[in-house]
Amino acid sequence: MPGGKYEEEILSLLLDKYEAGSYFKRGVKPTRRITLKFYDGGASDYPAYDIEKPEQRERINRAVLALSEGALIFYEWMKGEAGHFVARVWLNLETIDKAYAFLDRRPANDIADEICLEILDVLDGIKNGWIRRFLEESYGAISRRRAAGRGGPGNRIPGSREERQDLFRVLRFVDSLGETEMLERVFSIRCFGDSKKFETGVKKRLLDIVRRYADWDDETREDELLRFAGIVRYPQQFEFRGPLSISFDPAPSRGGAAARQSLDFSPLVHGASLNSLDLRRGTLRLTPEVSRVLTIENQANYVDYLHRQNNENELVVYHGGQFSPAKGLFFKAVAAAMPEHCPWYHWGDIDYGGFSMLARLRREIKPGVFPYRMNGEELIRHAAFTVPVTDPYLEKLRNLMKQEELRDCFPCLEYMVKHRLRLEQEALLSSGLD
Question: For residue 433, what pLDDT is reported?
Fold first, then answer.
């Protein structure tokens, strides 16, 4: 930048104010001055102009005169204090291009257009729904506001081109994982050729995007959010109990064909677990007598249910939060192994998260998943344990009522909206499970 410190500060503040205006977003010339007040009865848009510091004030006065001589700004002295105190300065709208050139700064419009084109380029190859929603919403926000990083969805897109490209690279790589999962350090090496760059550079941004666009709440742990994106610290374990077995193709042997190996989990009445890596090399099987599948969102409820209910023909699965790609693969394997008339139930919190998980199971795993104990009767029965909700939360509940796949749940959602409440699953612990 060719100018001095104060010239650059003053001109930058004026251009920031110019780009923040509605006229800039509409692409029209402002009808009023873009002004900075230096001193107005103690009020100031430029705190550096301190009349109690004569030397600094004089340096800023000289900067104002230099910018004026360059036809970049206009200024006005305080009445009766000409040559001593600047009252205000305003941008010369006829020399905007010169102002940008003076600062070696690109207009926000140009940057917004560049970012929008980059987003469209990334979107073209993305299959994952939550990543597409983030990019589409960011594109809309930036194209309207003509700038990134000014609140709303566009704030999640970095203004720095290098940081932006790093984020886009991560989103593309996450999308390419599909139903696989990858250790965090391995992910960083494969994505950047550096085992620490993901953690130090992009991880925080990705966590923020997953939390916002994949229906997670603010209290969700970091490892759950990363696992949802297919990035793990260790291979995932799937917890369940019931008439489930897994069989493996035999390893090649010199001594002839080996027998197919099979592992039956049904004797483990207190629950079993299966590693995601073993799931990928085997085939799940359910007995023809299986009476139903029940997924349970909360781990405390899952453990309590196993302790109190022991139907040997029921497969009970710990669901957890929004399922990861690996757990989605497990759920798809269970759905494929179910007999034709076996029902699938889901028991979650009677809140936004619980119903969004039910909707996702119906969309991605099995259309006919039934809600279990997720209704208005449970809200009334456990009214003492319900929790009040905020207006933004009510809006999220109303958005659920726009999803046709949750039509049978609308009465419960309407009750929640009307009475402004929700109910966590733990309130139902040990209370007359059927």
Answer: 46
